[in-house]
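INFO worker-7 received task bundle
INFO bundle size: 2
INFO processing item 0
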Amino acid sequence: MNGLRILRALVATSIVALVAASAFGAYELARPGCSPFPVAVPTYDPDHGAVGKASPSEVCAILGRPMPQITYLPSGVHRDGIGWAPLPFARPGVGIVSVGYTRDRHGVATLDVTRQDAIPVGNQREINGTVQGVPAIVTTLPRTAPPGTVGFASYMWSKDGLLYELHVRIADGIDPNMADAMAESVR
């Protein structure tokens, strides 16, 4: 009789563990990189003026959702670091998240993201294109350049309560079409 109680307790414990693991797994699928537990926004030292480093869980706390990713990256380009800084005159914990992308230790792109429902009013007259089907400011300088000349492509758009700014260095095999594809692939 005692062995049956132990067996029942083991089965019940296994079921509870399986349900808990399933819940955490489902949460991870729904909100990748976010913690199911409260995460403090990383500390920031305004005296040093430097952007603080942030983990994907901290980014989730800052933005209120998983960290955006560029899903199309040209060959050899990878995510290098995640940083954040508070916005001036914003409540504590509200800030801008910056994700850097590099190739061969050289900066290729920076994706800046903050909570904002629209392109800032002061910039709205500059809207000249679309990114992901929404109005955007798209700037590529110069659009065509002689070999060896460095250019830049910049994109600003707002979607689903976030304002995105992507800056891509046009050089070393990365052309304006690749930069456009990177902007379109942000998720």
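INFO item 0 finished
INFO processing item 1
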Amino acid sequence: MENHRPLLVLVSLLLWGCGGAGEEGVEQAQHSIHRIAAEDAVWTVGHESDATGGLEDVAQGAFLEPGVLAFGDGGSSQKLYIATEGSREVRQVGGPGDGPGEFRRLLWVAGEGADGLRAFDAGGPRVQRFSREGSFRESVMLPAVPGLQRVQAWIVLEGGHLLLGGTLEGSGLPTPGTPGLTDELGGLAWLPPGSAEVGEVFWEGVVSQWVSGTMGGRPIAGGHPWSPGLRVCALPQMVAVTTRETPEVTLFSPDGEQLGEIRWEQPRVPLTPDFVEAWAQEVLATAEAAMAGPFLDFIRSAELPEFVPAIQEIRCDQEGRVWVHEFPPPETEVNRWRVFRAHEGVLEAEKVLEAEVLLPPDVSLLAVGADHLAAVHRDALDVQRVLWLPNPL
């Protein structure tokens, strides 16, 4: 099997488009540096011999407790997995479909209270509730959010607050064939536990960016890999939000109050034609030859942003830390995550920087637990596996 994944990510976008402490009293932090190798993994999930039968598209997951990880496979299997490191047991739940406990587009899994978990199915859109043993409990369709369209669930806090997001009404795609960049504006709102009434939209910003160009000789509008994007993650009693574009993370409470902000200095990396061309050639190295011409046509014809994003991804742990993966410079193999302590108030990042964690260059961080990090590795045949790495913090 050839590795079409990087190209499919872009093509799928194209198809879709057709009081606390402030600065006072906080001293400069002394941070530690930790390097983790793939050989340090204590367990690997995703072999053909285990319950997964191999993984295609690992969905966002979470550690339910130390040594117990829940995650989904948004590929053809559309299953939810509960993996226990101590017993080496992997339980599977669901499958493709619209029935109870089934999924059409499984995007994330998270814990709920002491004995449950939730899984978001964007094909509903709905949130399904299960016991931690995998028994189905109920399915809840997402309510409408005034002022937002294409509503989806982002995360759930440990108290049960569900974060909903969508695009602002009237915010859409550019006209195919009309040059330029179009910002797609979105918002976030909370759905309190046990309530059917959504709170007011407490955050608005750029959730994605669209470009117009030609592909295969015809006008087309779609997403691009350097979109500002929106990233969120759940801390115990707050949510961390970033649009990726600038080096800052904003912290909000479950009632939508802004509690703090972590910001740092970072030189912006220009999105030069050479940078774009090198990226395109790297993607095409593992794609079908027939896609090369149309793909390069689109990339070269589209007007792109001036800079690459500052942030690639963020993750949160239950100890109150935000893990930030900055957008890697061109031709780098450093997979560095900077770990910040969440604080109320506006703080320079250096004052709350606890650690730098260097992961293997060919993995992406799935979830952070008390004892382990779950990381996704993709091999040359496009098969994914989940590595259980030690958490150095």
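INFO item 1 finished
INFO post-check item 1: The chain has four helices and 27 strands.
INFO post-check item 1: The chain has a mean pLDDT of 84.
INFO worker-7 idle
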